[in-house]
Write a structure and sequence with these properties.
The protein is mainly alpha-helical. 65% of the residues lie in helices and 0% in strands. The protein is built from 18 helices and no strands. 46% of the residues are buried.
Length: 361
């Protein structure tokens, strides 16, 4: 119920964009044409339909997912997306509960009670899709099935800023069988993006140019909502290149520890690092940190574990509300402290496996 009023505001009080949903609706309407990646054509389409001009920030092929939405109204498809994201997040909770051998009802509640899930669903975003792909990858890692694990990470490439740390992790662990699936997935994304970009085989050029132009503007407009270390550093005046270099160095420093632990646990820790060290993370991104929270419930000793988990959920819920005088998002505390706690946890030192080992028949 915590986001009900915001939901009503976005849907029933004449909001023209329905949070970020208008950007995805416009992507679905322009996919297959050059207007998808041409900022001028894309903006002209948005203005003609009375919605906020923006660029398409994902891989072009991902816009095909939203093509059916363009045949229906913004209002109806916004509601449909919100329902779908909640359902996908709930299923991810079931997958996580099974992986950690927890009750499924607990997994669903733990996921749906996490405020960023509500922020993503009400905000017209798609982060629960990334969450589901990561949780499935964890389940396949636990079952020692590298091919479907690689397929999940390959599909996650739709969101490159989140997917890249997982790809690097697989490389550091020399998981060649998983990477052998990730590689053709990347090729598939590229080829499908050619059609999405209106047949432009060189779509990567205008795509990267648009991102380079748009992200500084987006950062300045949303600077109060940064939830990652690079974003925090840039807010305090550190150049973007230096901020990203620091984040990259920290992730590289974590790789030796992540290479010593089991694959499933390494993926869980990476779900936290992928957000904490992301160059572009807003309040809906911590949805993908839920595997890290489940891992924290396993590896951090009491009473610290209870305090960390409760504080994470309470602070995340508080971050939804506008607090007078506060000009930064409380979620950044949760993201950075949870990532640090897991990085320093026994799992990254001793390499012990917190996942229950399946009995051999």
């Amino acid at each position: 119920m915590i986001g009900l009023w915001q939901l009503v505001c976005n849907t029933l009080l004449g909001h023209p964009n329905f949070a970020d949903w208008s950007c995805f609706w416009a992507g679905g309407a322009t996919v297959g044409t050059r207007a998808l990646l041409d900022p001028n054509l894309h903006a002209a389409f948005a203005q003609a339909h009375g919605i906020r001009p923006a660029i398409w920030p994902y891989l072009p092929a991902f816009a095909w997912l939203y093509a059916p939405a363009a045949h229906f109204s913004l209002f109806a498809t916004y509601i449909a997306n919100a329902i779908a994201m909640v359902a996908i997040a709930a299923y991810a909770g079931i997958v996580l509960a099974d992986a950690f051998e927890m009750p499924r009802w607990f997994g669903i509640i733990a996921v749906l009670a996490w405020a960023p899930v509500k922020i993503a669903a009400v905000g017209g975003q798609n982060t629960p899709i990334a969450l589901l792909l990561i949780t499935l990858a964890i389940a396949f890692a636990k079952a020692e099935r590298p091919a479907p694990l690689g397929a999940c990470i390959g599909l996650l490439l739709y969101k490159p800023t989140i997917a890249l740390p997982f790809v690097v992790l697989l490389m550091a662990r020399r998981d060649w069988r998983a990477l052998a699936v990730v590689a053709p997935c990347g090729v598939g994304w590229y080829l499908t993006s050619v059609a999405a970009a209106g047949g432009n085989w060189l779509w990567m050029g205008p795509y990267l140019s648009a991102l380079q132009w748009y992200f500084p503007l987006d950062f300045r407009a949303n600077v109060a909502n940064v939830v990652s270390l690079p974003g925090l550093l840039m807010r305090f005046g550190v150049p973007a290149a230096a901020s990203l270099a620091i984040a990259a160095a920290l992730f590289v420093a974590a790789l030796p520890r992540l290479s010593r632990t089991d694959s499933a646990s390494a993926l869980c820790v990476t779900s936290a690092l992928a957000v904490a060290l992301s160059p572009h993370a807003w309040p809906y991104e911590p949805v993908v940190m839920l595997p890290a929270i489940f891992l924290a419930m396993r590896v951090i000793a009491e009473p610290l574990r209870t305090w960390i988990v409760i504080a994470a959920y309470v602070i995340a819920a508080a971050s939804i509300f506008a607090i007078p005088g506060l000009t930064w998002n409380l979620l950044v505390i949760v993201v950075l402290l949870l990532a640090a706690a897991l990085f320093r946890s026994p799992i990254t030192h001793a390499g012990r496996n917190p996942f229950p080992v399946p009995s051999q028949a």
